[in-house]
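Good morning C.,

I know you're traveling, so I'll keep this short. The sequence:
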Amino acid sequence: MGKIDRDMLSIAGEFAVASELGRRNIYAQPTFGHLKRTDLLILDKTGNLLRIEAKGKQGSQWPNCKGISSPNSIMVLVDYADKGNMERPDFHVLTLDDWLSEKQGNY
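The tokens, ready to paste straight into the viewer:
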């Protein structure tokens, strides 16, 4: 696959996460804009709101990862590196506990 334009990479990652959630029968509502740390909103079966921040990459570094701010937020890393046009990206899901453990070097 050719390189995804940098401006398109973030939106490609967001919609890849929304698509994957839809495949699993989970409705995800995209949010738009660059001044927030929420790309998708989902409601769990009990009505609790979960905020998702999606980060896409196609090289060796994850761009602009500032962390996870609350227990009701998760980060989904979407890896397009070495993927063909017909291949799905790899997804890595991090909770607040995962992020804190990573910062402490426990991974």
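Safe travels,
E.
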